[in-house]
Amino acid sequence: MGPSSCHLLILIPLLQLIVPGSTQCSLDSVMNKKIKDVLNRLEYSPSPVSKKLSCTSVKSQGRLASCPAGMTVTGCACGYGCGSWDVQGGTTCHCQCSVMDWTTARCCYLA
Length: 111
Known about the structure:
Layout lengths: L2 H16 L3 H20 L11 E9 L2 E3 L5 E7 L6 E4 L3 E4 L6 E9 L1
Antiparallel strand pairs: 1-6, 2-5, 3-6, 4-5
C-alpha cells in the first residue's frame, strides 16, 4: 500500500468528523418524504364487491365429518383427546386414532 493510500485511509474518518451530525437526520427526513410521496401516488381501488367469510361446525359420530357442499375444511377436532387428523378431499375431516367417538369439521366459504 502506497503513502497516498495510507493518507486516504486516515482522511476518511477525519472527514466523517467534519460532517455535521444533523446530516443523517436530514437524509432520514428526505427519504421519509420520498416514501410518503410514492405511497400517496399509488392508486388504491378497493374491490367494489366485499366478500365475507362464513363458517360452521359439523359434528359426526365416528372418525369422519364432512362439510356441506360448497364449503371447505379449515380445521378438525377429534374426541378422546386425539390430536391426529387429516383432511381428505378438502371437505372431510378424518380422525386417525383407533378409537373415536366423535369428529368435528370446521367448514367455511366466501359469501
